User: What shape does this take?
Amino acid sequence: MDNTKTGGLAGINAGETSLCTVGKEGAGLTYRGYDIYDLVDNASFEEVAYLLLRGKPPNKNELDDYIKRIKLMRDLPSELKTVLEMIPRNTHPMDVLRTGVSFLGNFEPEERDFSNQEEAADRLLSCLPSILLYWHRFHVDGVRINLATNEDSISGHFLHLLHDRAPSELHRKTLDTTLILYAEHEFNASTFTGRVITATLSDMHSAITGAIGALRGNLHGGANEAAMELIESFDTPEEAIDGIARMLAKKEKIMGFGHRVYTTSDPRNSVNKKMSKILAQEYGDSQLYDISEAIEKTMWEKKKLFANADFYAASVYHFMGVPTYLFTPIFVCSRITGWAAHAMEQRKNNKLIRPAAEYVGPSLKKWNS
Ligand code: COA
Assistant: This one.
């Protein structure tokens, strides 16, 4: 086996999907045949969720019903609220989500024949922000929040629970756009984790719990938080240029840059960058955006590495007053759609996923007892 080619399964087709294309010629990223640029301009996150989970875009009545449906699923069992109150304040919220989903799987398990799989997916889509923000507001603000808001959209609901007030239309639309951009991405590490779990005929909650664990790491979803910490570690663009050059000289990885599949750019980046610039102006920022651009320019000049979706998503969330440790959890609130859609797709034509390994250990020897 040639490890330089197959390390990390790079370039290996590990199965089929009709959900998404990544980096295919002529279209950087598509969901069920729709270009993400078309979707961010013309669809809402709820429409994209429906597209991914139900297989086709909703008509007006279907969308109205879907929004009503997921709005009614936002509350949590009191037992889960108790568990969330018991999880320490200094826990990473990705771990809170992992526990929350796993615990919910005890209370509202999927049927053994998966006949309620769509309901399980909708429920998670609806209540992930509740799990996250119930825990956050309880530990940060010392309040037991009411999880019902009159916001129709998941983005509006999320910001309303977080800040305890209705968000501006600009912020709601911006968060909605990032949710669309994060929704699906073919056989990325967390989705593949979820498919491996699903392929054993395990349940949706186990698949999503595993996927959350995979997304948490800095090489995957955790990069948006790591990118924010990096950007904030510099005070000026000049400092950033020097600092990045030093890090590269030490062969350090710069979070928010590079991609396994895309080779020249990440199509989601231009959308995030534009939103970051608009929000920087609204926020009155005089440094963060310029520092971000300086890092982006340096990375391209020195390594020909481009910013991925996580890099400008970081400042977008920051400018909307989202604490850094909630960035990757927002990714979960979006990617639940792709994960669940993949679980359902896997089940349609299931085969256990069990690859082989090249043995590089010692040759056969005798045990001396
Ligand atoms: N900063 C610095 N160098 C990077 C880099 C980064 N962000 N991403 C890749 N490289 C370099 C590697 O050091 C390596 O250089 P080398 O050949 O001289 O050793 C080369 O580019 C290939 O990188 P590698 O990590 O082997 O590629 P991969 O396909 O396994 O990794 C990522 C893809 C996304 C994991 C990788 O680009 C990365 O770690 N990025 C930072 C984390 C991140 O932003 N993740 C979110 C992805 S959407």
